[in-house]
Sequence to fold (249 residues):
Amino acid sequence: MELLGAIGGASFIIASLVIGLRLLLLAWRTRELPEFAIGLALFLMGGFAYPLLSVARLATGMHDALRLGLFFVSVLFNMSGMVAVCVFNWRVFRPRERWAPLLTAGFTFALVAALVLQSVTPGLRAGALYNEGSGLHVFITLQGVPLAWAAFESLRYYRLLAKRSELGLADPIVVDRMWLWGSGMFLALVINVFSAVLGFFGVDIAVSPAGSLAIAPLGLMAAGCVWLAFLPPAAYTRRVTARAAASRR
Fold:
């Protein structure tokens, strides 16, 4: 089961690093905020925060101070990535809504408050080494907010574009990408909810057999969705286009 979890986790790490870096390089050329935000989120969260947290949890032979340092960096990367997802959701899907920037700011404040709470009691060490502390569990639960928002907005937009695509008014590739991104975010949300629920019962998803069983299939599917959304093979895009054309006949 640990091997299965490692395969699923590694798949998501690789997909996050490759796609995140490509989007950051694209943002460097275009100076566009959405590409930068989602590229930063993938690069920091999937590419670094998750593996750093796993090392902090699993490397029990490592000095406690180093494990604490890795844990703290992973928390900061996760925080930055989640805020970036909110910024992406706001700027892409709700650029004219007043509540969107307020939600982003409120979410950022809530994450910082949870981290401060954990620092005060029982401390970052308890969170890093033993997965203990109400602040940590609140922090993990809060991470579901931008994921749920991203899944909702993407799948809502997918439904709108799908209707237009049936009339030949929307690019089927864009429609499919909305579906894939929304599905990937929904799978990440399921992992987050699973982790939060187990955490409240004192089970660390990073080291438990149940966590491995959840991470393996969900991580593989999420990685596949994200990869196809941003780096689809030519054969895949041809199939999507052909399927859309056949549905309009």
The chain is about 85% helix and 0% strand. Residues 2-247 form one domain. The chain has a mean pLDDT of 89.
